[in-house]
Amino acid sequence: MATSRIHRRSIPAGARIDRWTAPDGWEHRVFDWRADGAARGSILFQGGRGDIFEKYLESFAHWHAAGWNITSFDWRGQGGSGRLTPAKNCGHIEHYADYVRDLGDFWAGWAPGNPGPRVAMGHSMGGHLVLRGLVEGVIAPDAAVLVAPMLGFKPGIFGPFAERAARLLGGLGNPARPAWKGNEKPYTTETRASLLTHDPDRYADEIWWQTHDPSILTGPPSWRWVIEGFRSMRELAADPRLAQMRVPTLMLVAEHDGLIDGRAALALAPTLSDVHLVRFGKESAHEILREVDAVRDRALGEIDAFLEKRAPQA
């Protein structure tokens, strides 16, 4: 299933990059790639914290070749969707409910113009927000795919007191300031590349895009993003609506994920009424869809099989 780099470092012919304005006036950058001919269905794919949709062009090409419409937008305050704080490239949000509201508003406008079956996919923070959108009823896809969903942070040096420590440290100054200087998590000697993927060439794709358009680079999160992340994940895990959510869901979890806590996803999965869980071992870092071919191909195969069974073409 390996795809040529032409789909990784250039916008595909026929794809369109546009702007979507949320009801409050905030502009989001949007990628849209319509199927050639009659669509097999439509996918809305949402990336993680600091992501840009260019990182997933290779996967988009795979689904597009299978006949899917593909759409993705950069979350508010990151990528090509502007910044919410004067701090350079800081990924800030006041409340995760703002993300969920954007997701619901975008879906409401997107769904009528995109034929079913409609699938919501989310990686990392995007997986967390897609799941929140499902349980809160702001999106109603025919199926959902959560890839390495951000359902728990690694506890780090503060262990079980990490959320309390974040609130304390964030409150020592402006919580919109960057929580740390760089990398994807503090207090680590691991490189950002090793936390994300074992494939150096695919990792380099992200740097290539950021070099060619520095405006899409998102640096470290704000303290408010961290604090609200802890709260959102804690409240989601305790939400009784999880068990009532009926959308068929595929969850791909990297058990040795060095960036987020895969154990939280494994603990939450059984609370869903209709879930298929696929585990990856040490062979996969956080970005399962940007891993070495063996891992990525297995992930795409699992997604294809799931959609064929649970979101068949009408």
From TrEMBL:
InterPro entries documented for this protein: AB_hydrolase_fold (IPR029058), Hydrolase_4 (IPR022742), MAG_DAG_Lipase (IPR051044)
Gene3D superfamilies named in the record: alpha/beta hydrolase
Domain of life: Bacteria
Entries under SUPFAM superfamilies matching the protein: alpha/beta-Hydrolases
Database matches in Pfam families: Hydrolase_4
Residue span, Serine aminopeptidase S33 domain: 38-293
PANTHER family: PHOSPHOLIPASE-RELATED
Protein name: Lysophospholipase
Source organism (scientific name): Sphingomonas psychrotolerans
